[in-house]
Amino acid sequence: MKVNFETEHLIIRPLVPDDADAAFRWCGDPNVNTYMIYPLYHRAEDVRAWLESRDADDPDNYDEGICLKSTGELIGSGGMRYRPERSAWEIGYNLRADQWGHGYTGEYMTALLDVIRRDRPVEAIDGIFAAENSKSRRVMEKLGMVYVRDTSYEKLDGSQTFPAKYYRRNFLQPADRCLICERIEMIRNGSNPYFVRELETGYVVIGDHQRFEGYTLLLCKEHATELSQLAPDFRNAFLRDMAVTAEAAERAFRPDKLNYELLGAGKGRHMHWHIFPRRNGDTPKPGPVWQVQDMNDDRYLPTAEKLEELKSALGKELDQLCG
Q1: In a domain, 283, yes or no
Q2: Where residue 231 falls among pLDDT bands split at 50, 70, 90?
Q3: How far is CA 100 from the centre of its chain?
């Protein structure tokens, strides 16, 4: 499907046969081709033949060119193809080796997913990558995808087989209302006023009600109920992000003690961390915050000015801790 749009650093546009020479810079690069399903191209003319053979109007295949906004040069291609047998959109991409490490693939895929979801229902996105390919694993984790199972794949010409990892991210459908997913969606479309900062595995927000000043949450990017449901690397990173968030809250709000709770909400009980700054005498008697009956009373909603003050203080500390 032909689409045109821009992101912060990229211009996304359809590929055309005249892109053959530019595309040959990655299609003919052995380093880029190492884990690709297609055999290495040896001539730009063969790349042109591939570009001419593509069905650019296929509604189930978004395969676009990735260009640098700063220069206009084509640096890669990729997208998502619908796989009806799995009710999922499978991601794939190629990027010139000299453009690796800038986050361009994740930036493109995140934006493309938003484009597709405006027109099509998306139940899940899938990705399969060679087990040795740590770069692709990081891309998929940044997209909120988690490990499902070990698998394998082979090149189209059968010349090589790769042990592989299968990753997936499920999306709730309208009937599966989840408060946390809705809050995350608001963050992604820029309409959540409580959002502070995105971390690797979650989103840091200031709590709606501030009965305990500095009350902060970390919303997990993965819709999961228990830590045991997360892939080990993602789980470790999620716990690390929680610790960083807590340290930032401690620095920003100077409590006597922090309370931590990992709770769930909505259908599927989407887990998220609650971090409560505690101060001596802040409850009628010593104990957990939940003894306070009016904790969510609207009189504890922060004013717009107070909310910005809290977000600024927490964001400053997160910036220092995260770099």
Answers
A1: yes
A2: confident
A3: 18
283: phi then psi, degrees, rounded to nearest 5: -130, 160
State the pLDDT confidence band at 176, using cuts at 50, 70 and 90: low
The CATH code of the domain that includes 246 is 3.30.428.10
CA-to-CA distance for 226 and 264, rounded, in angstroms? 9
Residue 274 is predicted with a pLDDT of: 97
- CA–CA dist 76, 108 (Å, integer): 11
The winner for highest mean pLDDT among 52-56, 195-199, 263-267, 294-298 is 195-199
Count of other CB atoms within 10 angstroms of residue 137: 21
Q: How many CB atoms neighbour CB 265 within 10 A?
A: 16
- Shared domain check, 208 and 309: yes
How many structural domains compose the chain? 2
- Regarding whether 115 and 43 lie in a shared domain, the answer is yes
70 assigned to some structural domain: yes
Indicate whether 150 belongs to any domain.
Answer: no
CATH number for the domain that contains residue 93? 3.40.630.30
Same domain, 195 and 317: yes
Phi and psi at 230, nearest 5°, equal -90, 145
Give the pLDDT band of residue 66 (cuts 50, 70, 90): very high
The boundaries of the domain holding residue 278 are: 179-322
Q: Which residue has the tokens 């960083």?
A: 244
Burial profile 117-133: b = 16 or more Cβ within 10 angstroms, e = fewer: eeeeebeebbbbbbeee
Do residues 116 and 195 both lie within one domain?
Answer: no
Query: Using an 8 Å Cβ cutoff, are 130 and 121 in contact?
Result: no
Q: Which residue has the tokens 């305990």?
A: 212
Closest to 39 (Cα-Cα) out of 159, 126, 189:
159
Our measurement of the distance from residue 61's CA atom to the centroid of its chain's CA atoms, rounded to an integer in Å, reads: 21
pLDDT tens readout for residues 76-109: 999 999 988 777 899 999 999 999 999 999 999 9
Q: Which residues pair with 151 in a beta bridge?
A: 164
pLDDT in tens, 2-13: 999 999 999 999
